[in-house]
Write a structure and sequence with these properties.
Blueprint: E1 10-13, E2 29-32, H1 39-47, H2 54-67, H3 72-75, E3 85-89, E4 109-110, H4 125-133, H5 137-148, H6 159-192, E5 195-200, E6 209-210, H7 217-220, E7 255-256, E8 284-289, E9 298-302, E10 310-316, E11 322-326, H8 328-331, E12 337-340, H9 351-355, E13 361-365, E14 377-382, H10 386-389, E15 396-401, E16 406-407, E17 412-414, E18 418-425, H11 431-434, H12 445-479, H13 497-511, H14 519-536, E19 551-552, E20 566-569, E21 576-587, E22 590-593, H15 599-603, H16 625-628, E23 657-658, H17 670-678, H18 685-700, E24 705-708, E25 715-718, H19 722-733, E26 737-742, E27 745-749, E28 763-771, E29 779-786, E30 794-800, H20 802-806, H21 818-832, E31 836-845, H22 847-861, H23 867-878, E32 883-894, H24 898-907, E33 911-915, H25 920-929, E34 938-942, H26 951-962, E35 1012-1017, H27 1018-1024, H28 1028-1039, E36 1043-1047, H29 1051-1065, E37 1069-1073, H30 1079-1084, E38 1087-1091, H31 1098-1101, E39 1105-1107, H32 1112-1149, H33 1163-1167, H34 1169-1173, H35 1175-1184, H36 1190-1195, H37 1201-1204, H38 1211-1236, H39 1250-1271, H40 1278-1298, H41 1314-1317, ...
Parallel strand pairs: 1-2, 4-6, 20-33, 20-37, 23-25, 33-36, 34-35, 34-40, 35-36, 37-38, 38-39
Antiparallel strand pairs: 3-13, 5-8, 5-9, 7-8, 9-18, 10-16, 10-18, 11-12, 11-17, 13-14, 14-15, 19-39, 21-22, 21-32, 24-25, 26-27, 27-28, 28-29, 29-30, 30-31, 31-32, 40-41
Length: 1494
């Protein structure tokens, strides 16, 4: 088009279709067209001029900054992460750390460990609360009016009385906000005062400087004692609430020593190098509190205790100094993580070692960071051993420190008796706190919508004042030259027609100020307080088990509960109980169900100390620790809960076993017991071998440790994963008891083992290799050798996902045929019930094959390049030709009523997003069990793996594949180029996979009737939240799905997801969680709900509402939320209406008073308008009104859409009510005015006075306003009747009394009107006439709507009135399909009633293998969901230690390989199926029969 382009230009490609392009300001522009330019393009050139000048742009930027202003920014300190730090232990701070005055420099002063979730302090309460309240436009207006009336020219009554209502409103609101925050401070105090063991005594002193703690409401009101300031350079031990010695030298009770002996107390003065007494007490652990923990302190954490800060592990009770922690507070994962101590510090195992001045070192650490998976730090210490280090004694050594050596605040120590660590980060510098934000100041949506409405009223007020001022000035200019008597001497400098217009304007602001009612805000606060009380006293959301009621911590958000559109939920502890229950298993094509009739009994056993004999064992067997517990396990458990020990018989005699912490019941199946008893006979040896092999795999293929309870002697399982604990416990429940691991020897007690001469039957297996579980492998295998005199075979025991196991089964047998098809069918049934499944298999490895494979595996483990890939390839070689044993089904037990609650919330039109730290399979399994993912849902998986497609392209492909009609992508925009080459693109095309059935996933994926569910992991979210382009596509894609599941997400990502939806869509959001990792998400949402469960009080402290169970959320939203929103919206609209009625009468009067802003009626009637005459009905609406009854809202969640769509409040209804008020004010004023404008309304013929007919207007306005409010009330109760007629009675009494006060008491303008008002026929005739005419339009409109155009609310109100006995819940499903009915009301006896008999279970739905289609957009692979899920730490420290031990043993035994091979060859049997997991015949027949005949 152009021959030459000069200067800077932007190049755009114009498509054939007309589009609007947003062009940045530029000096020139080049347009490239695909066809010759026409006249249309010339018009296009004109449109592409710079759209905004610089001045307009700067104004826009200034407005955006003002709109984005947040009051929290003034008071919430945006604390930047501190600098790199050096923690000094047992040595003084260097001189450069101090300034010239000897004080520690600020950059070396660390944050206190006190963490506050409260909003206010003593200092910030008044200014911050006032600024929050003056965000209301009305409050600013009232303040301006009050200030105006302090000038004599504009004063009406005492200026103090004028400002008093505003002060009352501000004071009551401040008291309410202060009370709420005091509750937060009390919760913070409980957390900050949690006890912890801190090193004290001896030569110990902590030189690291800490900041002062904040003064809260509680601490600020208590005067602190004056403390003696330390001398320059002197270190002083911190003073805490837990002093370890009294003045008399008597030892405090909160002192612990590492042994049972105690030494003398400290005596005598004298200073040590670190500022201690020379004669000191013995080093010990004192009981301090969390907020007093300092950087550089040694702390001792016991089992089941939370970590108070981020600490570096020095030593632990376990061998090899391994510690296990539960991190669900951080990332939501339920499986334990293993951590290990820093090797150079493992000798610090006692308080004396820690306090020894010879053990000095420094820790150089990075600045605090939000990344919970990365830490760069270095340990620096003096070399002590010349021989070992090869360095000169005293030379500095450096050792790396990473996240595997640290324990983060919020994690819980598990399966470890104790850990000693050094504190590195405290308080706001800890990872979990940095991932949380400051406590926000939330405002309800209704309140935000009120501001524009108040602003409209202010504009109307300004217009009214300007009109009065202009007309008054014009009239005075007109009549003053004509010597009008009322303008006498209006020629002064401060009193003339020109200046009087301005004075009239100010008077008009005062006269019509009630157009913005100040009492509205105090009324809203009062109503919301009552609504919070209703929530608290609602017995339907009261949890009797913990004696906990639902608590409204923020009273100003009750109406927001009725407008929620998106719910963001955590999984662990919120939807689930974090309790794994072994429910069913499929063995050799037969399903065994757990018997639910014994479930309650297993939860509450009769105990093991009674001495009563059971059917299989005469008394509980106490197992010596040397024979049953692992060398790396602890000797005792310090759990606060009493041990749960089985008193039910197993198949074989054995020890009692304690239930794992996350298991609530035992697996008891009478049919399985009978089959195991029959396994000793020769009737079905193949089935007996399969049963034996199945439970042998369960009992051996794991990484579980064992311990012995010191009180009961019961065997205790300590698992990193709740899945593993449930599997091993289930095997023990049926008689296959894992007895422990001694280095690499596994002990197993089975019903078919021979007696070892000591009364027990033990089989021993040598652990040869562990092929680890990873998310990519989806399986775990162990290679074991049976240590038997006549059987030394090598077995591969494997468990994993069904598709992974099936494709590795041996062809032509061992898994083919009916048994395999039955197992697949059973897996589908398990998955349809929301159970987590695993498939078990095994194989016998010939000795020669194993030796050759073992060499290749060893070479792969020591490879320098591509080690992981080589190990995977070699492992895959061995995991072939497997023989199928069966499948397991575990329930991740849900909170009571979760599936039904989610189903009803989805019926209410609320979209639910689940954000969890668990892996993808776990998230999908929970989605199925909670009804978030339906049986026929289409799952879209977006991964952030580096090997697949880029995240943007995955989302774009999903949009194109499944939502082509939505036009999510512009047609002229190409996809971003993939990371892989074009030639390899065909590798990622959608394809089918086969897992045993022929083509179980067809081409109709995406056409299932269940809708779409998006599943996205944390690494993909990092890319999706990186820029606006990714965010926009993610948001558009997610809104088309009925649910979204975010897995592997960090706490910060949870908050970012909430903000993305909240700000991107402008919708109302609710976040619910129970752990510290949910705090940021709860604070980011419009409404935050905390569940007070096992996770502590972190989520509750930061929430707006605290509930005990997730199921209570349904009633909280559908009933209390919907009621509150409808009540508050209706109340506010009626409040605006009744004030416009009053102001309207005053406005019409200005026509007849020269627009002088005078009052139409006596001032006290106006003064008490909002205080007495009309306040009660609107308050009654806010407290007692009900759109429909609670049971209707619960039975018909679809009615919630009226609140979700904002039907009860908005600008449209505001306009309707305003117009109605203007109409009624005109009827009242003009009808009464012209009635009294007759020759005379008095019987004596005298003319009426102003107050005579204006009082009639007041009565008429009060009657019309109160009855109009009653007309807008849906339910008339006794309280509503009382409220409606209260104001009418009050004004009658007031007028009668007020008009009777003689001037002898004080002068009133109403004296004597009793003689003219009450006898007047005009008074008694005008009242009914004006009220009926004023209310007629609203009455007719409501009657027509209810009779001819009713909505669902009207219909349900009519049914409730005429047919109160009708079952709404039943009738609501008559017209729905069976599939919808089954989805909305899932019947799952295993979740809702565990006490029902197995025979009473509802029939299982027929399994359609195409259900639950799943498409992985990263690889393009389609698969079917069969419920696979298994959680286990990948690449953890514990697994590394096991692998290291196995490698060392292998190296030490390589020289004996030939001898071992010769011996095993002589004893090895043929690898036939007959001898695999063989059962000794007649074993159970030798056992004497019990009393029950079994």
């Amino acid at each position: 088009m152009y021959d030459e382009v000069i200067g800077l230009c932007h190049i755009y490609r114009v498509s054939a279709r007309p589009k609007i392009y947003s062009i940045p300001p530029c000096r020139s522009l080049l347009i490239i067209c695909s066809r010759p330019p026409t006249s249309e393009h010339s018009h296009l050139l004109l449109l592409l001029r710079p759209m905004a000048p610089a001045a307009f742009q700067s104004l826009t930027n200034a407005y955006n900054k003002l709109a984005a202003f947040n009051i929290e920014n003034l008071f919430v300190r945006k604390r930047e992460p501190g600098p790199r730090r050096t923690v000094f232990v047992n040595e003084n701070l260097p001189a450069e750390y101090h300034d010239a005055k000897g004080r520690v420099r600020s950059e070396h002063v660390y944050s206190t460990n006190q963490v506050l979730t409260s909003k206010y302090t003593i200092i910030t309460f008044l200014p911050r609360n006032l600024l929050e309240q003056f965000r209301r436009v009305a409050n600013i207006f009232f303040l301006a009016i009050a200030i105006l009336q302090f000038f004599n020219k504009f004063s009406t009554i005492s200026p103090g009385l004028v400002i008093l209502p505003l002060l009352i409103v501000l004071g009551i609101t401040a008291l309410k906000d202060g009370y709420e925050d005091v509750k937060r401070h009390q919760s913070d105090r409980r957390v900050n005062h949690t006890p912890v063991r801190v090193l004290s005594g001896g030569n110990w002193a902590n030189p690291n400087a800490m900041a002062k703690k904040n003064r809260t409401f509680v601490r600020g009101m208590i005067p602190t004692r004056l403390r003696k300031k330390p001398e320059k350079g002197q270190l002083v031990k911190p003073t805490t609430a837990s002093d370890i010695m009294t003045e008399s030298g008597v030892e405090h009770t909160d002192v612990e020593y590492d042994d049972a002996h105690e030494t003398g107390s400290e005596t005598g003065p004298g200073l040590h190098l670190f500022g201690h007494h020379a004669n000191h007490s013995r080093p010990h652990w004192r009981k301090g509190i969390w907020e007093d923990v300092r950087v550089g302190d040694f702390v001792k954490i016991m089992d089941h205790e939370q970590l108070p800060a981020d600490i570096l592990i020095c030593a632990s009770s376990e061998e090899e100094n391994v510690a296990f922690v539960e991190t669900k507070n951080l990332d939501g994962e339920t499986n334990l993580k293993s951590r290990h101590a820093c090797a150079p510090l493992t000798h610090l195992r006692t308080a004396a070692d820690c306090a020894d001045v010879r053990n000095r070192f420094r820790v150089d650490a990075d600045r605090p960071d939000v990344n919970m998976y990365k830490l760069n730090a270095t340990l620096r210490m003096d070399s002590k051993d010349v021989e070992e280090t090869g360095r000169k004694k005293g030379a500095e050594e450096t050792h790396p420190i990473d996240m595997q050596m640290t324990l983060l605040r919020g994690t819980v120590l598990r399966n470890t008796a104790w850990v000693i660590g050094i504190v590195m980060y405290t308080g706001e510098d800890t990872r979990i706190v940095m991932n949380s934000g400051g406590t926000p100041s939330k405002r309800s949506k209704v309140e935000r919508q009120m501001n524009p409405q108040v602003f409209i009223n202010l504009i109307i007020l300004a217009i009214m004042a300007v009109v009065c001022a202009i007309v008054d000035s014009v009239l005075e200019h007109h009549y003053f030259p004509r010597n009008a008597p009322w303008l006498f001497l209006d020629n002064q400098s401060d009193d003339n027609p020109s200046i009087n217009g301005l004075v009239t304007w100010a008077f008009a602001l005062i006269t019509f100020q009630n157009i913005v009612p100040i009492s509205l805000y105090i009324s809203i606060e009062f109503v919301r307080t009552c609504q919070a009380a209703f929530i608290y006293f609602d017995s339907e959301i009261y949890y009797k088990k913990t004696d906990q009621a639902t608590l409204a911590r923020s009273w100003n958000l009750s109406d927001d509960l009725g407008q929620i559109e998106y719910i963001f939920s955590d999984k662990t502890g919120t939807l689930t109980q974090n309790s794994m229950v072994f429910r069913q298993c499929s063995i050799a094509g037969k399903v065994y169900h757990g018997d639910t009739d014994v479930e309650e009994e297993s939860r509450h056993p009769s105990g093991i100390t009674s001495g009563k004999a059971s059917t299989s064992t005469s008394q509980t067997l106490t197992i010596p620790a040397s024979s049953s517990s692992s060398s790396s396990s602890t000797a005792a458990s310090t759990s606060s809960s009493p041990p749960v020990v089985a008193d039910k018989p197993s198949v074989a005699t054995g020890p009692a076993t304690m239930l794992p912490p996350r298991s609530a019941t035992r697996f008891v199946s009478h049919s399985l017991t009978d089959d195991l008893r029959a396994a000793g006979h020769a009737s079905d040896p193949a089935r007996a071998r399969t049963l034996n092999g199945f439970f042998t795999v369960l009992a051996l293929c794991h990484t579980v440790l064992t311990g012995t309870d010191p009180e009961t002697g019961a065997l205790e399982y300590k698992a990193q994963s709740p899945d593993e604990a449930a599997l091993v416990q289930a095997a023990a429940d049926v008689g296959y008891v894992f007895r422990g691991r001694e280095v690499d020897v596994l002990s197993l007690q089975t019903p078919f083992s021979e007696d070892d001469g000591k009364g027990t039957r033990i089989e021993r297996y040598r652990l040869l290799n562990i092929l680890e579980f990873t998310s990519a492998r989806k399986r775990m295998s162990v290679v074991v050798r049976k240590m038997d005199e006549d059987d030394g075979r090598v077995f591969l025991l494997c468990k994993g996902a069904d598709n992974v196991i099936f494709e590795r089964l041996k062809e032509g047998g061992g898994g083919e045929g009916e048994e395999r098809e039955e197992t697949e069918r059973h897996l589908g049934e398990f998955a349809s019930e929301g159970l987590r499944t695993l498939t078990l298999a095994y194989k016998v490895i010939p000795e020669e094959e194993y030796e050759e494979w073992s060499e290749r595996y060893h070479e792969a483990t020591v490879a320098m390049e591509g080690r992981e890939e080589k190990i995977e390839a070699v492992s895959d070689e061995l995991e072939r030709d497997l023989r199928l044993l069966g499948a397991t089904a575990i329930e991740d037990r849900l909170q009571d009523g979760v599936p039904e609650t989610i189903a009803d919330l989805k019926r209410a039109g609320i979209k639910i997003w689940v954000a969890t730290g668990d892996k993808l399979e776990t998230a999908i399994a929970i989605g199925h069990s909670t009804n978030l993912i339906g049986r026929e849902s289409n799952i879209i998986v977006i991964r952030g793996d580096s090997g697949g497609r880029p995240v943007y392209q995955q989302m774009a492909r999903a949009a194109e594949e499944f939502f082509p009609e939505a036009n999510l992508l512009p047609s002229d925009v190409d996809y971003p180029p993939p990371r892989y080459s074009t030639s390899s693109r065909t590798d990622y095309q959608l394809r089918r996979i086969n897992t045993g059935l022929s083509s179980i996933v067809g081409s109709n994926n995406g056409e299932r009737p269940g809708g779409f569910v998006l599943v996205i992991d944390g690494s993909a979210l990092e890319h999706a939240l990186a820029d606006d382009e990714h965010k926009s596509l993610l948001l558009r894609l997610a809104t088309l799905c009925e649910g979204v599941v975010c897995c592997r997400v960090s706490p910060l990502q949870k908050a970012l997801i909430v903000r993305l939806v909240k700000n991107g869509l402008g919708v109302m959001t609710l976040a619910i969680g129970d752990g510290a990792n949910d705090v940021s998400m709860i604070q980011s949402a419009d409404v935050g709900v905390g569940i007070s469960g096992e996770e502590g009080l972190q989520a509750v402290n930061s929430s707006d509402y605290a509930i005990a169970q997730f199921r209570f959320l349904k009633r909280l939203l559908l009933v209390h939320g919907h009621w509150s929103y409808a009540r508050n919206g209706n109340m506010i609209l009626n409040f605006f209406y009744k004030n416009i009625v009053c102001i309207g009468v005053l406005w019409w009067f200005q026509i007849y008073c020269g627009w002088s802003s005078n009052y139409a009626f006596e001032y006290t009637f106006l003064l008490f308008w909002n205080s007495f005459w009309t306040i009660a009905p609107v308050i009654a609406i806010g407290i007692f009104d009900r759109i429909v009854d609670a049971h209707v809202l619960m039975d018909l969640p679809e009615l919630y859409r009226y609140g979700r769509e904002g039907r009860w409040f908005g600008l449209k209804w505001f306009t309707v009510y305003m117009l109605d008020a203007v109409f009624q004010s005109a009827i009242i004023f003009f009808l009464i005015l012209y009635a009294y404008f007759s020759p005379s309304a008095r019987t004596d013929g005298w003319q009426v006075a102003l107050n005579e007919f204006s009082t009639t207007m007041v009565f008429s306005a009060v009657l019309a306003a109160n009855l109009f409010n009653g007309l807008n009330t849906n339910v008339w109760t006794g309280w509503v009747f009382f409220a409606v007629f209260l104001g009418i009675v009050l004004i009658l009494l007031y007028t009668a009394v007020y008009a009777s006060i003689s001037p002898g008491w004080f002068v009133t303008p109403m004296y004597g009107y009793n003689h003219f008002l009450w006898p007047s026929a005009y008074f008694w005739l005008c009242l009914p006439l004006t009220v009926c005419l004023a209310l007629a339009p609203r009455y007719i409109a409501k009657a027509w709507k209810f009779g001819f155009s009713p909505d669902d609310i009207d219909i349900m109100r009519y049914i409730g009135k005429t047919e109160p006995e009708r079952d709404i819940a039943k009738d609501a499903y008559i017209s729905t399909s069976s599939s919808t009915r089954q989805f909305a009301r899932p019947s799952s006896s295993r979740r809702t009633s565990h006490t029902s008999l197995a025979s009473e279970r509802p029939p299982r739905p027929s399994f359609d293998p195409r259900n639950g289609s799943r498409t992985d957009m990263s690889t393009g692979m389609r698969s079917v969901h069969r419920g696979f899920d298994f959680s286990m730490e990948e690449g953890g420290v514990a697994m590394q230690r096991i692998q290291t031990n196995l490698s060392e043993r292998r190296e030490s035994s390589r020289n004996l390989a030939a001898t071992t091979k010769q011996n095993t060859n002589g004893n090895r049997r043929r690898g036939t199926l007959r001898h695999v997991f063989s059962v000794r015949r007649g074993f159970l027949r030798k056992k004497p029969s019990t009393s029950d005949g079994r």
